[in-house]
Amino acid sequence: MAEFPDVGKHCALSSCQKLDFTPHLCPHCEKHFCGDHRLSHGCLDAAATAPNGEPPTSNSAAPLRPHLCAKNGCFNRESVKIVCSHCSQNFCLSHRHAEDHECKYHESINDVENRQKEAVKKEIMAKLAPKQEKIAAPATKKTKVLSVAEQKKMDRIEAMRLKSNVNPTLGIPKELRMVIFAKVFEPEERRVPILIHMRWTVGRCLDKIASDLKIINDNGVTDAKKLRLYKDDGAEPLTMSDNILDHFGVSDLSTVILKRDL
């Protein structure tokens, strides 16, 4: 090469020093290198300029910072190992934290807190379980079956109580007050004392029963299913225009059944 002493540059890598007619100037260390060492010459920042995102390789010299970052897409190197305590891989200073390299073995603060709360909750529930088992279920109150005489006695007491607590706005004179017991099935089966006027019609008594017990009464609506009153032992409904005394005596405690047409 004595014919062209001023052409080209020798590779600045001490282990190479090859004369290259098209030398490459490193923009980081501002030295010239041959084509083989233009990227892999131990420069602090040369790895970042590798083409196609591939880390540089070198067959002739080791980089000054040998520890390559394990983060995908990062080619930074460090002179000392920086190992993640969770995944045991080496990373550069920029990606040394678990959050920075998206470590899949690292739990976030929220995950840790949620796991701790769940553990505390399970511990508390385990301690409370034996106590809850010791708490006896409330005893079911049994309904006493009354005899005929006992039932009549209870009915008289209910009738007296109802007559003595009459709302004056009803306008029923004391001597014309009468108590009948209505057996209904809406919304559930029950037998309830109802105060009526002795001179009311069956229809008026039906309206009073439905009103007191808050049962929907559509008897005035065309094609609606009608409510009917029946005697306790009767198969046919009572005629609406009849006086209630046509079917029951003046004494209290009679039972009527309120049913809706099917």
What does this structure look like?
By secondary structure, this protein is an alpha+beta fold. The protein has 3 helices and 10 strands, in the order ββββββααββαββ. The strands form 4 sheets. Strands 8-7-10-9 form a 4-stranded mixed β-sheet. It is rod-shaped.
Please describe the structure with a list of short key phrases separated by commas or semicolons:
262 residues, alpha+beta, Zf-an1 domain, Ubiquitin-like (UB roll), 3 domains, 21% helix, AN1-type domain-containing protein, Znf_AN1, UBL_ZFAND1-like, AN1-like_Znf
In brief:
One of its GO terms (molecular function) is zinc ion binding. This protein has helices spanning about 110-135, 150-165, 200-210; strands at about 10, 20, 25, 30-35, 65-70, 75-80, 175-185, 190-195, 225-230, 255-260.
